[in-house]
Amino acid sequence: MNKYEVKDMALAPSGHRKIEWVKANMPLLSALEKEFEVTKPFEGIKISLSIHMEAKTAYLCKVLAAGGAILSATGSNVLSTQDDVAAALADDGISIFAIHGADQETYNRHIEMCLEQKSNIIIDDGGDLVSMLHNERPDLAEEVWGGCEETTTGIIRLRAMEKEGALKFPMVAVNDADCKHLFDNRYGTGQSVWDSIMRNTNLIVAGKTVVVAGYGWCSRGIAMRAASLGAQVIVTEIDPIKAMEAKMDGHSVMTMGQAAPLGDIFVTATGCAGTIRMEHMEKMKNMAILANAGHFNVEIDMQALEEQAVSKKEMRNNIMGYTLKNGNTVNVLAEGRLVNIAAADGHPAEIMDLSFAVQAMSAMYIKDNYKNLENRVIDVSAEIDDVIARRKLAAWGIEIDTLTEEQEKYLNSWKL
């Protein structure tokens, strides 16, 4: 029997409806589910997942379960968990430990409960499973073959562990796959961040000055969509190459100190702590809006804001206003947590169809190859990217050209 800890099992029918909706819009995962039901590639294999517990990730769980996996799942962010979706998974017989708004102690306990089955494969989003297995409960890592990491922040942590020789098992960098970061990070984040900001503030974006911290793939998408909505975009960066890219993409580029008095809306997506600090917030306009699109709630210095603000009050659902000593108020969305999923529904289903197809196929790669893999961060193979891209195009009804024999010969010859 499955074990679970969710808020209310009576919410399950609502969760089932959400999962059915995304399933209808995720053709890659739907095809994999049908394939897995026949081939059972994960029969008897224990998989633990730490993911944003909402409908699209729930469907990934169901696809893996269809392949015979013994699943145990938890949330990767206390505000991204949707209680009805968690209840639906429990109703489907999956061991799930996730409650929206859980305190840190409960969150950590859920991660530990998720790992107690001593899994063979882990699927992580941000690195909390890996952290628990390496720091608090190394005894639970004895049967781990390897795993997959979903997001930029988690891969940063993994590469640091690999560099120090601390990584105990191989991890596939799912985030770095072309079918993930070029689409999920750019188009998914670009749309979902502005969906969240607009639905929570009910304010227009056109005519405003938007400051985007960072210019990686997530930030590119955020800046691109802000500009398409009519905003003037300022980008802050520490990387000179990315700063040049932002400039040539038509955005202004400056330091956060220079941008602070100019912005109406600030969005961070750097993967680094302290991107917006008190020294910046003290320069901001009255009623400036701050949102974080990075995985962890460290990019906006919330601790300093909580300590130094004169007062705070809830302005709207998911918006807390902090009045500073200078009399100005800054408004923070979703407690400074991942705004697109802590205060909205996350990326569109069609985008996550790509990302989770990469996850499922990378888990299969670990299962088939773990005996020959070193304890390091592994790139997703070009073959996996190619298969997923071709399947997605076919689902869209799109055909592309193929090389002729003469073209193949030309491209593989060094002679004119």
Automatic annotation (TrEMBL):
<dbReference type="InterPro" id="IPR020082">
    <property type="entry name" value="S-Ado-L-homoCys_hydrolase_CS"/>
</dbReference>
<protein>
    <recommendedName>
        <fullName>Adenosylhomocysteinase</fullName>
        <ecNumber>3.13.2.1</ecNumber>
    </recommendedName>
</protein>
<keyword id="KW-0520">NAD</keyword>
<dbReference type="InterPro" id="IPR036291">
    <property type="entry name" value="NAD(P)-bd_dom_sf"/>
</dbReference>
<dbReference type="InterPro" id="IPR015878">
    <property type="entry name" value="Ado_hCys_hydrolase_NAD-bd"/>
</dbReference>
<dbReference type="GO" id="GO:0016787">
    <property type="term" value="F:hydrolase activity"/>
</dbReference>
<comment type="similarity">
    <text>Belongs to the adenosylhomocysteinase family.</text>
</comment>
<comment type="pathway">
    <text>Amino-acid biosynthesis; L-homocysteine biosynthesis; L-homocysteine from S-adenosyl-L-homocysteine: step 1/1.</text>
</comment>
<dbReference type="Pfam" id="PF05221">
    <property type="entry name" value="AdoHcyase"/>
</dbReference>
<dbReference type="InterPro" id="IPR042172">
    <property type="entry name" value="Adenosylhomocyst_ase-like_sf"/>
</dbReference>
<keyword id="KW-0378">Hydrolase</keyword>
<feature type="domain" description="S-adenosyl-L-homocysteine hydrolase NAD binding">
    <location>
        <begin position="185"/>
        <end position="346"/>
    </location>
</feature>
<dbReference type="Pfam" id="PF00670">
    <property type="entry name" value="AdoHcyase_NAD"/>
</dbReference>
<keyword id="KW-0554">One-carbon metabolism</keyword>
<dbReference type="InterPro" id="IPR000043">
    <property type="entry name" value="Adenosylhomocysteinase-like"/>
</dbReference>
